[in-house]
Amino acid sequence: MIETPYLLFLGDAPDMLAAKVAIGIRDWRPDHAVGQICLPGCGADLGLTEMTLAEAKAAGARTLVIGVANRGGVISAAWKEVLIQALEMGYDLASGLHNLLRDEGDLVAAAQTHGGTLHDVRVPTVGYPIANGENRTGKRCLAVGTDCSVGKMYTALAMDAEMQKRGMKSTFRATGQTGILITGHGVPLDAVIADFMAGSVEYLTPDNDDDHWDLIEGQGSLFHISYSGVTMALVHGGQADALILCHEPTRSHMRGLLGYSVPSLEELRDVALPLAQRANADCKIVGISVNTQHLSEDEAVKYLAETEARMGLPAVDPYRHGAARLVDALAAI
Amino acid sequence: MIETPYLLFLGDAPDMLAAKVAIGIRDWRPDHAVGQICLPGCGADLGLTEMTLAEAKAAGARTLVIGVANRGGVISAAWKEVLIQALEMGYDLASGLHNLLRDEGDLVAAAQTHGGTLHDVRVPTVGYPIANGENRTGKRCLAVGTDCSVGKMYTALAMDAEMQKRGMKSTFRATGQTGILITGHGVPLDAVIADFMAGSVEYLTPDNDDDHWDLIEGQGSLFHISYSGVTMALVHGGQADALILCHEPTRSHMRGLLGYSVPSLEELRDVALPLAQRANADCKIVGISVNTQHLSEDEAVKYLAETEARMGLPAVDPYRHGAARLVDALAAI
């Protein structure tokens, strides 16, 4: 559990693309961010109040979150200066970088001296159990994709936000570093030891109120050779009552796999549902989330209408048109 | 790579059941074992020559392999005495125990002093790549099961032995601790980090001669909630040309999962083949391996004949009747 609220560290981010984590926090948990802090040359601006470490501290910030990717795979001296100052002032640090904070001797020393915590969210800190497959109370929804990076996290976050707005009981359950930094907790599933993957998903989505929904962040794809095992653990460990199929219609091949075509939504449905029903016989596919960022508005509307008619399921782009119809579908089961 | 030949350490094994690893080595790689060494009170006997450390050393032994499960989750003082003596005499040690040799300070110290290596085969020592899904030369056969512990390792070892006997080119590829200790190398798949599972299987089964077969040891089951992600990584990383379906017909439920029924061979076929064809479009199911240990000879013969007729595939128990017909089926594709 990462202590909130955060001050978002943008460092010397060359552009907004590099600040994906910070943008996610600003968009989905605005209450978690008291402000932003940049270094000279920063090309990213979240539109939040620019603050010094002292100003943010006075505003209540507990954790300095590295909201940006670093360059060249090192934590630079310029970054270090701010990070160490933050520790000296009583901040915790949180990071999803490949370079771990805990591998930097000066950060470890400063954290020890000042009683701060270094959160490397890429690394599991829990000894997860082996999955037991027992029925859990509460309801769970899992986003599964035809490919990686098609909008599964966005879909789950958008549905959670819509459910909160309606006063429904819901929790977004993060399974990747960005999601963990956004919400402050979760399971870094891609870094879990093979035998404990499904168990870590059970751990993440425990018994809950009968009318509570966990919106589980998906990972990988059952059709992606490199990561399908991770997805499978989500499908079985998640014990989902509802699946959302996620798709990006302009991909020419699977992400990172030139020779591999992207499956159709029908193929995804036919593979994912029987597997999910192994863990929860009542599991249903309730809707389709399409990432239409590379389509014009007209093309998007047409594609969604065609997909909805063909699949017999509500098909929406939650980024473009909101997640309301996906939540309607969830609420109806 | 564990140096052969071995001296097999049976310790104070209460019975033969506890000596599963040593039995596997004796049965499948008899040339790897110069003899056995017991402690007082040992209830296991492999029928190999009982040797002192010095006698085995003179006979060429390079590694003392712990061929037995330990009691109570500790490496006892009585064991330690022999293990440290072995290191002093220049042996390496190899173990698949949950307690790691490397966590025992006195063993680490003795290994350092005498230049020995401690092989804990439960723990990966390689930085595996992320799977790239590229086509590999050579042929690969994977055993997949309706459940865990239905005879997948035995099936692959028996097929490899039969192929060697026929002068065919084949290699058994171990993916679990027992298999790794039997052959001296492999990937401890259940201990690999999630993102690298499929890549570790690609690493284990690289390009090879066009007429060479890798017999890949299966793990878990696509239908076993706890471990299906591991199996999925094998199915996609293995890029199999041929699958063998493995089954134990008397199970009343999945191993360790009381509420879960065991799927039929038809269900396994219908789930496993399309998934495997994602990695290798030409993949075929070539045969069925049935573990008939709980059936009488008459029952077994009848069950196998009925299964063969129903599935349209050769169905054998390789333990009872040999793996020849499974190898015939492989050779025919």
Describe the model.
2 copies of one chain form a homodimer. Chain A is of the alpha/beta class. Helix content of chain A is about 35%, strand content about 15%. Chain A contains 12 helices and 11 strands. Chain A has helices at about 20-30, 55-60, 75-90, 105-115, 150-165, 175-185, 195-205, 230-235, 265-280, 295-310, 320, 325-330, and strands at about 5-10, 35-40, 65, 90-95, 120, 140-145, 170-175, 210-215, 240-245, 285-290, 315. Chain A has a 6-stranded parallel β-sheet, sandwiched between helices. Chain A has a 5-stranded parallel β-sheet with strand order 2-1-3-4-5, sandwiched between helices. Chain A is globular. The first copy, chain A, starts with 5 loop residues before the first strand and ends with a helix. The model of chain A has no long low-confidence stretch (mean pLDDT about 95). Chains A and B meet through α7, α8 and α9 of A and α7, α8 and α9 of B.
